[in-house]
């Protein structure tokens, strides 16, 4: 009987992967629904992944992106646009000729600032932004294919879901410079013995001066080394942290006077289109400026119910913590988690486009290692909800939130899962700090 059930489970999973491959050609909503079912089957049914299934899983993102990029090419969609904006900004130091952003040929003129840190102002490269973007995109693709080959069978399914998630798709399509930070963080994550060497701190400093939030990596590492009594490493990291903060403050005091963005905080641009953004500040802005329900003045009722649901869930999680939500991370995973955490919190507290959401995977990867199958299914499924526009089968330019029941329910699920995952982050962080403080007291 057991062999019979395992055989049926094996065939069901093979069938589901095959169907998911085929549904790539239908539309985004159908594809992501099939991926949700695939995650359900993966965690809910006992089976061993065969060589054929393993191959089907590994080539799924390759198949998906080849089709999507060919489709975008023939539709003349905007591709790799953020990297084109950035490299045009680098070009403008020596050549102010407007660039036609491909593939839509939108005119991109030179601007005073793009909202980047001071490092962007120091870089001057005479280049064709489209060709530069294609070269960088090719390098990133080679890196991704390498990971698809190198990652072991135990972790490949989660990694494939990460690659297919709307957030990573948004990041790859736009080729925003966040992808450089993500790739570097994946390199750090893959270290057998996690540590930040001087070269790592130099690279993080450059990335900080480009995009601000990597400063959280240095802050997290200082916290870890301080609580593990490695004061030498904590002091060395502080020597990098303080100058980075001073340079950022000085830069954004200057750029805030430009008034280049309609919405900004201290010169840093903010975005809050509910279908394509995330973050606490983005949700706050959306509450005041966007109608989130079919009722004209229903936001206050909607958000009140959301807050009540979240409070009840937090209380239930704390009461059931010992049974379901105790994550006994090993020492290396604690160090990784606490190092990445401040950077992720900086991102999640602000208002960002959905292409930053994949950075949350650095923590989600760790949580999944120590979660039950039921909790893993919920957490991994939640990444399909942020950003939401692909799930609605909308184009990137469809920024408008339509106040329908479908949009409202998905937004509610997206925000609920986002904040509950952040609450799980806090549980693990508190456990780490309590453990280290108790250790000090006992000594």
Describe the structure.
The chain has 443 residues and is mainly alpha-helical. The protein has 3 domains: 1-76, no CATH class; 79-150, no CATH class; 191-443, no CATH class. It is built from 19 helices and 6 strands. The chain has a two-stranded antiparallel ribbon with strand order 1-2. Strands 3-4 form a two-stranded antiparallel sheet. Strands 5-6 form a two-stranded antiparallel sheet. α1 runs antiparallel to α2 and α14 runs parallel beside α19.
Condensed summary:
This protein has about 450 residues and is mainly alpha-helical.
Task: Kindly list the characteristics that best describe this protein.
two-stranded antiparallel ribbon; globular; 443 residues; 19 helices
Summarize the topology.
Blueprint: H1 2-22, H2 28-44, H3 51-75, H4 81-91, E1 99-101, E2 106-108, H5 118-122, H6 129-150, H7 153-164, H8 166-174, H9 178-189, H10 198-211, H11 215-227, H12 231-255, E3 264-265, E4 268-269, E5 277-278, H13 280-289, H14 299-319, H15 321-324, H16 331-349, E6 352-353, H17 361-369, H18 373-382, H19 405-442
Antiparallel strand pairs: 1-2, 3-4, 5-6
Helix pairs in contact: 1-2, 1-3, 2-18, 3-7, 4-6, 10-12, 11-12, 11-16, 14-19, 16-19
């Amino acid at each position: 009987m057991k062999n019979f059930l395992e055989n049926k489970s094996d065939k069901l999973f093979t069938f589901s992967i095959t169907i998911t491959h085929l549904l790539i050609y239908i539309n985004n909503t159908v594809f992501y629904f099939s991926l949700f079912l695939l995650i359900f089957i993966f965690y809910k049914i006992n089976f061993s992944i065969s060589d054929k299934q393993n191959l089907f899983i590994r080539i799924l993102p390759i198949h998906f992106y080849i089709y999507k990029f060919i489709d975008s090419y023939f539709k003349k969609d905007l591709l790799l646009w953020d990297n084109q904006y950035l490299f045009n900004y680098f070009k403008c130091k020596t050549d102010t000729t407007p660039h036609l952003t491909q593939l839509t040929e939108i005119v991109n003129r030179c601007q005073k600032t793009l909202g980047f840190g001071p490092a962007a102002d120091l870089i001057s490269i005479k280049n064709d932004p489209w060709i530069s973007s294609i070269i960088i995109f090719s390098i990133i693709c080679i890196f991704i294919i390498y990971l698809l080959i190198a990652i072991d069978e135990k972790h490949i399914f989660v990694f494939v879901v990460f690659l297919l998630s709307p957030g990573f798709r948004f990041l790859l399509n736009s080729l925003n410079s966040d992808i450089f930070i993500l790739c570097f963080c994946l390199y750090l994550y893959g270290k057998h013995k996690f540590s930040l060497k001087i070269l790592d701190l130099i690279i993080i400093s450059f990335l900080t001066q480009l995009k601000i939030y990597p400063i959280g990596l240095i802050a997290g590492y200082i916290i870890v080394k301080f609580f593990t009594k490695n004061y030498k490493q904590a002091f060395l990291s502080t020597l990098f942290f303080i100058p980075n903060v001073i340079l950022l403050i000085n830069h954004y005091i200057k750029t805030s006077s430009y008034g280049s963005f309609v919405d900004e905080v201290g010169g840093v641009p903010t975005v809050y289109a509910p279908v394509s953004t995330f973050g606490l500040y983005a949700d706050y802005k959306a509450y005041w400026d966007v109608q989130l329900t079919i009722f004209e003045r229903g936001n206050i009722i909607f958000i009140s119910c959301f807050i009540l649901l979240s409070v009840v869930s937090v209380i239930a999680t704390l009461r059931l913590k010992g049974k379901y939500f105790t994550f006994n991370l090993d020492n290396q995973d604690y160090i990784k988690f606490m190092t990445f955490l401040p950077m992720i919190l900086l991102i999640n507290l602000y208002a960002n486009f959905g292409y930053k959401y994949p950075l949350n995977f650095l923590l989600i990867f760790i949580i999944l290692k120590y979660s039950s199958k039921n909790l893993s299914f919920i957490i991994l499924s939640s990444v399909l909800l942020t950003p939401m526009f692909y799930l609605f089968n909308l184009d990137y330019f469809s920024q408008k939130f339509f106040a329908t029941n479908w949009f409202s329910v998905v937004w509610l699920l997206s925000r609920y899962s986002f904040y509950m995952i952040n609450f799980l982050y806090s549980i693990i962080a508190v456990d780490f700090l309590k453990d280290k403080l108790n250790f000090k007291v006992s000594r």
